[in-house]
What does this fold into?
Amino acid sequence: MTRPWRSILIGGALAAVFVLSALISYVWTPFPIDGVDIPNKLRPPGATHWLGTDHYGRDILSMVIVGGRTSLAVAVVAVGIGMVIGVPLGLWAAARRGSWVDEVIMRGNDLIFAFPSLVIAILITGIFGAGAVNAIIAIGIFNIPVFARLTRGAALSLWSRDFVLAARVAGKSSLRISAEHILPNITSLLIVQGTIQFSLGILAEAGLSYVGLGAQPPTPSWGRMLADAQTMVALAPHMALIPGLAIVLTVMGLNLMGDGLRDLTDPRIRMQRT
It folds into this structure.
């Protein structure tokens, strides 16, 4: 088995575990996530509670799989926002290279890049209040220039190709050329970047929830679980270890998938291996 396929399979398996558990949590969890049980608080992993309990006696396994649902949903929607808005902007900028349209889009991207997602989240939550929806908006806004820049750069390399010149001679508009010829040829690149941004979205959501700007109680979140565990590390290290491992393994799986897809779709890497 070649290295790209090995990375895809290992990464896909890791990511699939958490995706499937998040989907299962919609219909079943080992214990109710709001099942406070003070007499059994801070229990270590055991036969009843496989991953132990937190400082309220809640089952950590149930919290992790429901928290994964929150983190994955935020990342998916945020990356979707970035792609839906950023890709058309990048195609438009490439089609109008050197014009005021290109300049406005690129300078707008620079402006967004000047503010990290955490700063954008603080601004949004300061106006509208903290919550998962506002975390999605903040991460989504930060993803827009990522996809816009990538799309523009990839599209510019294609506008001088013979098949695009033939389409222009045939009388096709810039919009039609972008949709019919440019976009299909950069789709694989966008998929790879989407996988990478998805993993970064999970990290961003965990970071926002950790500082109280993401999902709010009683909705579980991996970042919120880490924040709750920071004062309990000496008494119950499993409270921090388990959600931390969930974040690390999910992000590692998605990054492995992204690396494998990049190796498969990049012709320069394929030529180096042959």
Summary: The longest helix spans residues 174-210.
